[in-house]
Amino acid sequence: MITGTAAEPAAVAVEAPAALHPTTAAASRVVDITSGPLQVRLAQCAADIDAAQALRYRIFYERLGARPLPGMEQQRRDSDAFDPICDHLLVLDHSRGSGLDAVVGTYRLIRRAAAARHGSFYSAAEYDIARLIAYPGEILELGRSCVDAGYRARPVMQLLWSGIAAYVSHYDIAVMFGCASLPGTDPDALAVPLSYLYHHHLAPPALRARALPERYVDMRRREIGAIDPVRTLAALPPLIKGYLRLGGFVGDGAVIDEQFNTTDVCIVVKTDLVAEKYSRHYERQSKETWAA
After folding, report:
1. Cα–Cα dist 242/257, whole Å
2. Most buried in the list 3, 31, 76, 171, measured by CB within 10 Å?
């Protein structure tokens, strides 16, 4: 998942100035896609954000064993100082009713303007992202991705990505990035996937974030010839694997995240590569349909 944590205060209130919360009409113009009882849209109020934080707590802390910061256990919410200034993408199952129970998936989306209001992007606590910030055009940081365990089938994931695609199109995003996680905090135990990512998917210099010096963990732990790329790719966490298949890259250096019990890498995806891959995919589907 693209997640992780920075050294932020725990249990930050989600209320932000009204101007930072999209109105129902404005949010629905950006993302509003339905498929049967499922809907993907942006959070429209503080209650929506609260539901996303509740889902994140259930997944990250109760299911995956992250260590809650002071105040989180009482509130049973995963929250930090970035929540009030970003957009929250939600997947809802309306067959479960409304409110907290309806939210079954979420992604946190931070653009340049939101990061400027806060003073930084979330990833800046782990990586030097100056090259990404300098990249021309709009950039988007993805984070806090999670889906309820009962909803990780392909249709739900496709709906979530359709929402991201609509958001990217609306804001003309040029580059997406974020901290993606491998389970565990022992880099030697993760030597094969880390080395594979470095040798086969290192970002070009213009897009290459680098782990901060005090947090830098060398990813080159095996020689390239000692790695089976096909088997290693297949064994990667599904979200990292998905980004790579979209043409994604990784930055230089991993980062240990003790709170979330993960080892993070910085993922970078150019959206023109995504558009090209999707174009070929749909072109192939069209040809197969006509040939049938």
Report:
1. 22
2. 3
Contacts of 265 (CB under 8 A, 6+ apart): 179, 180, 182, 194, 197, 219, 240, 250, 251, 254, 255
Hey, what are 161's tokens?
């990505």
Distance CA 105, CA 124 (A): 25
Render each residue's pLDDT in the chain as its tens digit; 292 residues.
444 333 222 222 222 333 344 555 566 689 999 999 999 999 999 999 999 999 999 999 999 889 888 888 889 999 999 999 999 999 999 999 887 889 999 999 999 999 999 999 999 999 999 999 999 999 999 999 999 988 877 778 888 888 999 999 999 999 999 999 999 999 999 999 999 999 999 999 999 999 999 999 999 999 999 999 999 999 999 889 989 988 999 999 999 999 999 999 999 999 986 655 544 543 444 333 233 3
E-assigned strands of the chain? 32-35, 38-42, 87-93, 103-111, 127-128, 138-147, 173-183, 210-211, 249-250, 255-257, 262-270
Distance CA 198, CA 211 (A): 13
